[in-house]
Amino acid sequence: MFVTNEGPILHADLDAFYASVEQRDDPSLRGRPVIVGGGVVLAASYEAKARGVRTAMGCAQALRLCPSAVVVPPRMAAYSAASKAVFAVFEQITPLVEGLSIDEAFLDVGGLARIAGPPSEIAAGLRRAVAEQVGLPITVGVARTKFLAKVASGVAKPDGLLVVPHDRELEFLHPLPVERLWGVGRVTAGKLHARGIRTVGQVAERGEAELVALLGRAGGRHLFALAHNRDPRPVVAGRRRRSIGAQRALGRRARSPDELDEILAALTDRLARRLRAAHRVCRTVVLRMRFADYSRATRSQTVPRPTAHTEDILATARGLLAAAMPLIRERGITLIGLALSNLDNDTPVQLELPFDEHPPDALDAALDRVRDRYGAKAVTRAMLLGRDDGPTVPLLPD
Fold first, then answer.
1. What pTM was estimated for this model as a whole?
2. 205 annotated active-site
3. DSSP category for residue 334
């Protein structure tokens, strides 16, 4: 029997994806700091990141940090094509590929030992194949669990390979900062730091009851399990999304309520069309906001029945935005996002009385057919005429 002390899970993550595609396609950009975006940084090369440039930062601020950076406009079609080429390489390796986004995925190679060697060799071959066939750098983490494989790839960036053997998992994990744990953002990290907890090992040393008292039942149990590398989730190919979302960076200029409503309507139109194209419905509408002081807020509402109707979703989103306006006026808004969650398949549902002469989804269906045939801009709201909705980010299939 073939026994290995590695894997079987790979986490493959393309490095600075948009910027790497630009450097691949334009040799003059290689080795130089590159910023992809317009008013807001969509992606930055590692040369720019070394100077403090970060995604979602305003380009003016980014150029102050890195005056020598080259700013290039996004080419979403090129990024989408590169993603498809990389996923084709993944599928040459194993059929068990679980995409997380257009530039990262989990792969299960546990059944390939006899024909392809141990996971470390498979990972090295994957990196070579992506470099040769697609021309992009990719980092791979190899571990026994999905969580640890993702942590390993994060530590190995950029353009690296890191294998965490089964008998050295906690030795690798415990010295890392608590921010490496899934679910630990700025707020949770602050709570942990206030208790003197700064490493994953210190989280593991605390009892589960103490973490639950500090972070709540779900959060405490989650971090306690991860700190001991307990993550039983398998790699699942073909898993459908549990939510879809879109967002728009606004810069630091003040926005009127009418402007915010127009942006929200554009996001809603885009998401509702995606929802119907995937034959899905949602139950929860989530409004996400980032403010001028870099704080964030989320507001959500669950609707009475599953829906994919644009006007139902927009009415709910508008209600959330109206309730958040006092906070927006106080802090200033720099990013607005909309997400649709609690997704389900649009299987037939019980009809409701009274029956309308025109089904409520008739307008949506007609608009979808026009846009499918003549393009997304063929029909639009009057309030959106002449407005730039921003780039449409390429996505995995819904």
1. 0.78
2. no
3. E
